[in-house]
Amino acid sequence: MENKTSVTRFIIGIIFVLLGAIVLSENLGWTDLNWAHYIFAFPSILIFVGIISLLSSSKKGFGLVLISIGSIWWVTKSIQGINFGEVFFPIVLISIGLYILFFRNRNSSAKINLLFNRKEEINMDKIDVVAIFGGGDKTVKSNNFQGGSITTIFGGADIDLIHCKLAEGENKLDVVAIFGGFEMQVPKEWNVVSEVFPIFGGFASKNKKYYGVTTEANRTLIIKGFVMFGGGEVKYY
After folding, report:
1. Residue 230 Cα to chain centre, angstroms
2. pLDDT, tens digit (0-9, with 9 covering 90-100), for 129-153
3. What is the number of other CB atoms lying within 10 angstroms of the CB of residue 40?
4. CA-to-CA distance for 227 and 95, rounded, in angstroms?
5. Is the pLDDT of residue 179 over 60?
6. Average of pLDDT values for 42-67?
7. Helix or strand or coil: residue 146?
């Protein structure tokens, strides 16, 4: 698992180095291909975020959707008579619909929060929280919590796991936050390992040492994924 994380960070690091080298070359006049204009165009950013999602998250479908939108955008730019601004929003809606239909866990009891806020209580061992242009507060209760996934896009989520008990062994929670964020509250005895990759964003998981509290070494919650132009935080109670 650590080797896979190191490889992912290495690949993403190489991508940033190459992008920086291209822009530096343009700015110093060593090249005159106007690559910077294409690199920092919005469709290219979508493709870049999609690649990062494929590398650092288990949400492969989400990454493929972003790459598809970015690629279609570039194709339509090259076709005369088509204004992508007129078709972008419908394509986004279609993409979200396809993601919900085919790439989300259909057995999940969690609901999507779209354009509104809501509070709900979930009795489930695995969560699947999606907040798009909205948000919500989730209180989760489980005696055998096994992780799940959290996705926030231009939205936010507050996840209360204080009433949960971790399942034995390693439990994975996959997170993606783009122009959004999330906050989690967990019991102070939980052993939480962060493998979140922040890009122009931040993620914090700092467990304070509580007197008389022993960390559950045989039960671990591994949080993996990435945050971009967003953030996430784990708080211990």
Report:
1. 9
2. 888 777 778 889 999 999 988 888 8
3. 12
4. 20
5. yes
6. 75
7. coil
